[in-house]
Specification:
The chain is of the alpha+beta class and 172 residues long. The chain is 46% helix and 16% strand. It has a three-stranded antiparallel sheet with strand order 1-2-3.
């Protein structure tokens, strides 16, 4: 990203500075965009890696640097093979967040086809859940989806099986 925007910024008398500094026991990243006239704008964000490891801290810092520059300049980057969007750090958070009912074993957005549930499958899912809002909320949260309709058709049977298992445990 910087290889693309640095020449454009430089041509227009604009430079970027970023620094990490402690604030109240946490780390803050300050990003400042400078113009040759002396004017500047600034953004500040706390760094919050999910783990205290070099990899997680580095991934979070690199992502936030890019994110802050893109936000201030209002630019987007697509198809950058070196930009993991902080996924290395977030993958650990997703793993921790999804442990409870382990729906994560049922569904991986990166690998699933996006063929939708049939209307019959959707009705069966709704009947099986029988207004059990706790399980519905858990499914939506753990799978990072907004609607039960987003469950891929290929994952319908394992999801129904997991719902039945959870309901059986709840009854006992």
């Amino acid at each position: 990203m910087m290889k693309k925007i640095r020449p454009i910024l430089s041509k227009n008398g604009i430079s970027i500075s970023q620094r990490k500094h402690p604030v109240d026991g946490a780390e803050m990243l300050t990003t400042r965009i400078w113009h040759s006239s002396g004017q500047w704008i600034e953004s500040r964000v706390f760094l919050r890696p999910t783990k205290n490891t070099v990899e997680a801290i580095g991934s979070n810092l690199n992502y936030m640097k890019r994110f802050e520059i893109m936000g201030i300049l209002n630019v987007t980057v697509s198809e950058d093979p070196f930009d993991d969007d902080g996924e290395a750090d977030m993958e650990k958070a997703h793993d921790v967040a999804e442990k409870g009912t382990e729906f994560k074993d049922l569904y991986n957005k990166k690998e699933e086809s996006y063929e939708a549930l049939t209307n019959d499958q959707y009705r069966e899912l709704i009947i099986e859940l029988d207004n059990d809002e706790d399980i519905v909320e858990d499914i939506l949260e753990k799978l990072h989806i907004k609607s039960l309709r987003e469950i891929p058709k290929s994952r319908f049977a394992p999801t129904i099986a997991r719902i039945r298992k959870i309901q059986k445990v709840k009854k006992n």
